[in-house]
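SEQUENCE AND FOLD
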Amino acid sequence: MAPEILRNQPYTRASDIYSLSMIMWEFTSGIPPFTCRVHDIQPSLNICKGERPEIIKNTPKCYIDLMKKCWDSNPENRPTITELEDKISEWIRYIDEYYVINKNGTHKFDILNSDNELKK
């Protein structure tokens, strides 16, 4: 749950964006965030204080940047759904930047290289 919801503030669309960031993290880890913790008040307090799951090794930088924006503690700093759509569309348009040619002449999808960044 988004920190503002844990603080008993009204639910907003920005809360959905926070939830998306947790789904994004789950895609990289294969497990839901904070599953190894006892579900009492302490994890909720830690989330409100800014704790987030540890970034999984080899996560692409562009993905990390977007995920971090989506899980910002301040809902006003999170991207809107339109901004998310624009960013993901940008990734799709520039997907060729992530292809490399192997020694045998075949193409390999190189998105796992965390040094890759989209170029405008």
